[in-house]
Design a protein that fits this description.
Blueprint: E1 6-8, E2 13-15, H1 21-49, H2 52-72, E3 78-79, H3 82-87, H4 91-99, H5 119-124, E4 127-129, E5 134-136, E6 141-143, E7 148-150, E8 155-157, E9 162-164, H6 169-196, H7 201-230, H8 235-239
Antiparallel strand pairs: 1-2, 3-7, 4-5, 6-7, 8-9
Helix pairs in contact: 1-2, 1-6, 2-6, 6-7
């Protein structure tokens, strides 16, 4: 059926290709180091500063891990390619109902799908995908990493190992918000603890140098997504200069998943 997305937990979870595993491992290592450091200074913060800071840091850390799992292990809005639609019963009807695009017909002479994108569909933004052999609905795009077409594709995030699309965009935004709060709480707490413990400033400067690049990346992603939401778009549309104002994925309905990992297939089949 194609594509590099992987099914986990007997088809209940969908994640991206294994090529992202080192980025994912680096993300969890960064979170683990920061969480251990924050945990070491939390007793001091609780007694000497305020219980609020450790509580905010703890809640945001748990929220970050939950949102990361939801973003990484949920279907971003993958559109089943033609070969899959033909072997899963009524899947082509469900895809047509969800996307508003019919499955292309077959040329009887060549036995190949016919690229039929009508002028009204082209004006709406529909495009033909040679890889998936389907007509993509407006704002959908083909991810070269996962090798799948995704509804309202924002980007492929290597740090969560999955595409960011219509169905997991809200989880991604919640992840960025939680992560930003946790890093801010941890950095403030560690700085106050380091000053109180009278650590040498070179050690503090080294810790700041290690934490600064990931924090800057998260802030940049946050600003980009905030700008995209305000313009009623996703970041891919802004970076590629595509039409804006079509609506943010944050406020649109997620819809039902079209890729069903536990569905029965009819194979071999007649195209």
């Amino acid at each position: 059926v194609g594509g590099r997305s992987r099914f986990c937990c007997h088809g209940l979870c969908i994640t991206g290709p294994s090529v992202d595993k080192w980025y994912v491992a680096a993300t969890w290592c960064f979170l683990a180091v920061l969480a251990v450091g924050f945990g070491c200074c939390s007793p001091y913060l609780w007694r000497e500063v305020s219980p609020v800071l450790p509580m905010v840091g703890g809640v945001s850390l748990v929220s970050t891990m939950v949102c990361w799992l939801l973003t990484s292990c949920s279907d971003p809005g993958i559109i089943p390619r033609r070969s899959l639609q033909r072997i899963v019963e009524n899947l082509d009807v469900e895809v047509e109902r969800s996307t508003g695009v019919m499955l292309s017909r077959i040329d009887l002479d060549t036995s190949e799908p016919v690229c039929e994108v009508t002028d009204p569909e082209r004006d709406r933004g529909c495009r033909w995908c040679e890889t998936c052999q389907i007509v993509r609905p407006p704002r959908a795009a083909h991810c070269k990493h996962c090798d799948n077409c995704v509804l309202v594709l924002d980007s492929h995030c290597v740090f969560v190992g999955n595409c960011i699309g219509k169905r997991n965009y809200v989880f991604f935004i919640a992840l960025l918000e939680s992560l930003l709060i946790f890093i801010s709480s941890a950095c403030c707490g560690l700085l106050m603890w380091a000053v109180k413990a009278e650590l040498r400033w070179p050690l503090i400067a080294l810790a700041a140098a290690v934490l600064a690049p990931p924090a800057a990346l998260i802030v940049a992603l946050q600003l980009m997504q905030l700008y995209a939401i305000c313009r009623g778009a996703v970041s891919r549309e802004i970076l590629l200069g595509l039409p804006l104002g079509l609506g943010s994925a944050l406020f649109s309905a997620r819809g039902r998943p079209l890729l069903r990992g536990r569905a029965r297939v009819s194979y071999p089949h007649v195209i």
